[in-house]
Amino acid sequence: MCGIIGAIGYRDLDSKRILSTIGHRGPDSQGFFEEQNIFLGHVRLSILDLSDLGRQPMVDSSGRYVMIFNGEIYNHLEIRQKLGNKYNFLSSSDTETLLYGYIEYGEAILQLLNGIFAFAVFDKVKDEVFIARDQFGIKPLYYYHKEGKFLFGSEIKSFLGFEEFDKSVDLSALVNYITFLWSPGERTAFSNVKKLSPGHYIKISTAKPESPVFRQYYDIPFLGKYSSKSEADLIEELDSRLLMAVQRQLLSDVPVAFFLSGGLDSSAIVVMAKRVLPNQRLRCYTINASDGDDEGFSEDLLYARKVAKHLDLDLIEVDANVDIVSNFDKMLYHLDEPQADAAPLNVLNICERAKRDGYKVLLGGTAGDDIFSGYRRHQALEYEAYIRFLPKFLLRIIKSSFSKLKSNNAMARRLKKLTSNLDVSKLDRMYGYFEWLPLHVTKNLFSSESRIIIDEYKPKKLFFNLLKNIPEEKSDLNKALYWEMKTFLPDHNLNYTDKLSMATGVEVRVPFLDVELVEFSTTIPPHIKMKGNTTKYILKKLMESYLPKEVIYRAKAGFGAPVRQWITHDLDKKINSYLSTDAINRRGIFDAEKVQQLLKDNKDGTIDASYSIWGLLAIESWHRKFVDEND
User: How many alpha carbons fall within 13 Å on the CB side of residue 442?
Assistant: First the structure.
């Protein structure tokens, strides 16, 4: 696990300054390669082969190929065995395996990889750079392309110091960050900085960097074909596949620890690790969120303790009561994007403590909800059978009645959300569950000048176009899961997990995104993923053999923080500063009067806009760090 930065079309670069911007990702060593108009930089977090033989950039024995690589290839030993004796390996590093695998197979190496990765290979003979991102977007990879200049790297902040870097802001992306709290697809807050989509690669000539070629090499195989095995056999297969996924991801030359929230997913990962390492007392970390009573987070600790006692784990409780005022801007700086969520702070706190304790690697339960069904928007699909039989006039009455509820308690908020799109098509309703604010409300927050630019932007098109990739899939649940895995998971959960863990020099691994496990999950009949209103049914049935039922069937709680309390109390001063009429007018993006009304309506409980207000704060914080500074 490391950080990478590449530049094409630039000369005489300050390598020390460039690498310092991502130094937190790789505190163990730094290196760079520079030749004519290409620069490849790398900062290393040593996990496999801790010797200098694993340092990067790595050059093959012929001197033709140069590689920089961020991530882990969990099956690299299998690939190395496949390569046989053709290459003389000098290290036990997966970087060297990947380098020679690329030399042997070219882009076809991507079909063999099971891991987390973003890497680039420079071919000196072809004057060509090959850049690839893993199948599910676990590792971030951004690129900047303008007027013959091309940058790519793990973090946007590493681009800022480059000559003539264009800081133009993408207003449509800001619509995303308020509507969803994150930006689906390739857009970032900078107009000329994009995310390389998961499962994609780029080929670019160093002689003609103005014409990069983009290709997709992988998509999640939702083919509408399900296993005919019995439920019992599928549970047994899940058992073996999940065990294998965890076993693969325990590959490490440094100590490994675990997230343990007290929820099903992280507990399942620890269960499997305990089976792989039966004689070890595993170290786990959890959040002690005593201030989260009103938003459902504090009870997580009770369940984490139950799991730790049941499995005889070494559980470390990390205080989640952070000073949000002083940590807000720090979090946004590390995120690179104005994402509106407090969960990244929990990742940061746990990883800081784990690093102090000597752990560079943590395994967590991210993506269990996304591949097996775990969110309330998945449960909402169960109501479709009733909705389609109700006349439209009655649906409008129900919607109107629930819209009048105050939004100051969780049940009222959920009922308003569930009924807010009753009078639209089923697919529109499924899409609507991803929105935190309706699009028209979001756009209304922008200034009249900004609204001219964003008027035609419809993020719904991205979601609907994605479904064209899986025309054979008829299950509404699987369509929703495909959306999760193509948007929310990589663009939000995985992004903040990577950024805030690597801010401390800690690698987080996600066994639920083992390639073979994910592909198996797409063959599970939808009614066994979610049975009635029971989400993750198959995983829960499997865990009945390993965990107490009160842990398995507890109500879901997010990996969050008391955002609503912070917005209405702790962050008052920051709101008064960042979202004051003067500040908004100076920025020129939003309508100050409309923002002030949003703040008032949220405080009155007319609407639930705390996360959207967090989004507005995040956008202003991001501007101050990424746009205003160094101008």
Answer: 25
The string over 133-150, giving b where at least 16 C-beta atoms fall within 10 Å of a residue's C-beta and e elsewhere, is bbbbbbbbbbbbbbeebb
Q: Which residue, 374, 364, 138, is CA-closest to 261?
A: 364
Other CB atoms within 10 Å distance of the CB of residue 601: 14
- pLDDT (tens digit, 9 = 90+) per residue, 377-414? 999 998 887 777 677 767 677 666 666 666 666 666 66
Nearest Cα neighbor of 408 from 567, 561, 594 is 567
Q: Parallel, antiparallel, or unpaired for β 256-259 and 283-288? A: parallel
Q: Which two tokens stand for residue 54?
A: 């694993």
Q: What is the DSSP letter of 190?
A: B
Alpha-carbon torsion angle 445, 448, 449, 451, nearest 10: 60
Dihedral sign of CA atoms 562, 567, 571, 574 in order? positive
Are the C-beta atoms of 237 and 229 separated by less than 8 Å?
yes
CA proximity to 91, closest of 51, 124, 131: 51
Report the alpha-carbon distance of residue 214 to residue 202 in Å, rounded.
5
Rounded CA separation 58/66 (Å) = 6
Neighbours of 161 (CB within 10 A): 14
DSSP H or E stretch at residue 193: strand 193-195
Distance CA 40, CA 24 (A): 17
Nearest to 150 by CA among 141, 137, 139, 159: 159
Say what the pLDDT of residue 442 is: 96
Q: How many residues does the chain have?
A: 631
Amino acid at 192: N
Q: What pLDDT score does 323 carry?
A: 83
Residue 220 contacts residue 324 (beta carbons within 8 Å): no
How does DSSP assign 449-468, residue by residue? HHHHHHTT--THHHHHHHGG
Helical pair 610-622 and 171-179, crossing angle rounded to 10 deg: 150
CA angle 172, 174, 177 (to 5 degrees): 120
* E-assigned strand segments in 199-241: 200-205, 213-216
Contacts of 182 (CB under 8 A, 6+ apart): 176, 337, 339, 340, 341, 488, 491, 492, 495
Residue at 602: amino acid letter:
N
Give the span between the Cα atoms of 624 and 620, in whole angstroms: 6
Residue whose pair of structure tokens reads 């209304």 in the numeric block: 444
Q: What is the pLDDT of residues 36-57, one digit of tens each?
A: 899 999 999 999 889 999 999 9
Cα distance between residue 425 and residue 428, in whole Å: 5
- Measured CA to CA, the distance from residue 238 to residue 368 in angstroms comes to 12
Q: At what angle do helices 610-622 and 324-335 cross, to 10 degrees?
A: 70
pLDDT attached to residue 402: 63
d(CA 370, CA 536): 10
Characterize the bridge pairing of strands 29-35 and 38-44.
antiparallel
Q: How far apart are CA 514 and CA 215, in angstroms?
A: 22
Confidence of residue 295 (pLDDT cuts 50, 70, 90): low
Q: Are 142 and 120 in contact (CB under 8 A)?
A: no
Please report, for residues 83, 152, 567, the alpha-carbon distance to residue 131 in angstroms, rounded to integers and kept in the order given: 22, 9, 41
128-133, strands of its sheet edge to edge: 58-59, 65-73, 115-123, 128-133, 200-205, 213-216
Bridge partners for 72 per DSSP = 116
CA distance 164 to 231: 59
